Write a sequence for this structure.
């Protein structure tokens, strides 16, 4: 059974930093592309960053230069380092494991940035 568990969310002031983690179990993690998404109530879920199995990385324009995605295959974990946080970064952050047949999602972790 594949499980994704996010952690690291919380309340932070604008300009602060948070590091999100997503631990994957039940899967050969190193072969999978992974992504971080976020969703604000009333809005569609949007891609924040993704990292391929081979290490290719892409970011949404809104987070370029502030967020960094990385992975540790030995720990089956993907990270999202978020710096220079802004109030508009407030959302529930989800990690996703990309599968050709069925994507897997974590339960989400709340990030709240106060002004």
């Amino acid at each position: 059974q594949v499980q994704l568990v996010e952690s690291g969310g919380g309340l932070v002031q604008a300009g602060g930093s948070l590091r999100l983690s997503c631990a994957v179990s039940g899967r050969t993690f190193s072969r999978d592309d992974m992504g971080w998404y976020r969703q604000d109530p009333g809005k569609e879920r949007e891609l924040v960053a993704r990292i391929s199995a081979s290490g290719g990385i892409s970011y949404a324009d809104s987070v370029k230069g502030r967020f960094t995605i990385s992975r540790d295959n030995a720990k089956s974990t993907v990270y999202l380092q978020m710096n220079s946080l802004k109030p508009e970064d407030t959302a529930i952050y989800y990690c996703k494991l990309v599968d050709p047949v069925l994507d897997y999602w974590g339960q989400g972790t709340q990030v709240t940035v106060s002004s």
Notes: The chain has a mean pLDDT of 96. The first strand starts at residue 3 and ends at 7. The CA atoms of residues 32 and 100 lie 10 Å apart.
